[in-house]
Amino acid sequence: MQPDRAPAIAAKLAQAEAVLKELQQETAILSLEEFEGKPGAAKALASHRAKLEMAERQASELRQAVALAERLDREAGATAAATSRADQLALFKVAMLARERAMAKALDALAVFAGAYSEYSEATLSAQIAVPAGTVVPAIAMGELGSYGHVFGPCEKLILGELFRIAPERRDGIGRFIVPFAKSPIHSDTNHKALPPAVTEFNAANTAVAQSIIAQVSQIDTREMTAASTSKAA
Question: In angstroms, what CA-CA distances link 207 with 123, 139, 152, 199?
């Protein structure tokens, strides 16, 4: 962008007006000398008037030039601002399109999650129905101090904690963009990098439940087989 034109011309106008003011002040002196008949005064006054006329014309022309330059500078500024806004608008449109694509991707991922969670829920229901008679599903909690909640249920704390853990770093390096409903399983300032993967916690707890049921079934079978073998026939 070229620099403003008006300041340089305004500086020349200031010089011209200073010269004009000085000539105007001299006019009175020369007029008085010419009136008093001082030798050479008439000629000096005539020459002075020519200089004064030229100075007045130059000052007038420079005033018009300054006005024009100021207008052109304003127009150039407005054009530059419009160009800048146009560039910003182009970037804004690109960013808005990226938002649409990103949200569509996120919503598609939610659809995949919803389907997978439905499968988990169906499997959990089947497991609840299939719990062997005489056994009790142990209340096993996941995570440090049971922070991820009970393993044999909806596991909402596990899911929200995992969303907190896996949120990626921002591109500018200032923190992370975390899903609004995500929540640290311990407290708000938990170091997410120190949190274990949710699948590790779930699998460990799920295995513990299965082992407990297996052990209970084995105990029941052993007890009933012992009772059967020692009972007298009717």
Answer: 15, 13, 11, 12
